[in-house]
Amino acid sequence: MEAYKEAFFDYLRVEKGLSRNSLSSYTQDLEKYIKYCKEKGLENPAKITRKDIMDFLFGLRQKISPISISRLLSTLKSFHKFLLREKITTNDPTDLIESPKLEKKIPSFLDFEEVNRILKVPNLRDVHGIRDRAILEIMYASGLRVTEAATLKLSDINADVGFVKCKGKGSKERIVPLGRVALDFLQKYLNEARPKLLSKKVSITLFLAQGGRPLSRQSIWKMIKKVVKDAGIKKRVSPHTLRHSFATHLLERGADLRSVQEMLGHASIITTQVYTHVNKTRLKEIHTRFHPRAK
Asked: pTM for the full model?
């Protein structure tokens, strides 16, 4: 199984072009599965049955969430389809196994006033504050994921046209517009803060930590957590909340779903449709709050 695992990861890395984070998730899931197979003496993947896989998943139902079970099953399906494709096995034991039904959660988002409060927290008299404001403005203006923001290169910004190029899930590139405000704060960062953070070093990475090191996604996450607290916002906010807010505010102001899908980099418009539920929920809240006969 170990030999097949390495070949599978080569396939995901080279042919599927999965990101490091996605590969890490696949690794964790597959290692659990291989450990289970070793304990049960299932070293030959050709002899693994649907029942073996169901027993494996059933044994985890009290330990991990339905979302984790669903992700794990997705990994196993990919693995066994790969084995079948490579003619290592002659059947796919995961073929008829359905993923658990998951409750569709409406993504949390910030209203425009809350976003403004967050954006105004960084101290623009400090190089780190200028950098943090630029990051926040770009993430809210373009809906970038935190990893996408952390890995931006100088060459990914086209200030003349007002676009940012980013590499999303599966190494898929997309072009997203940037508003004038985000571009202004980005220019301020490039002129006043980045040269001081660079400290005589050379780097192609856009956002830097002290000493010219690339700023990590964990550092951006910590920064967002701090500015949210300093803004006095009690909601649970993550970097993804800015992405949710970006999409929600566009749709609230009349943007079409297909355009929002393209800007978010969603492979399927079904993924983007969750934001229409956000709008409906918000309309219901407004109706309940203001209509004299709603209560």
From this structure: 0.67
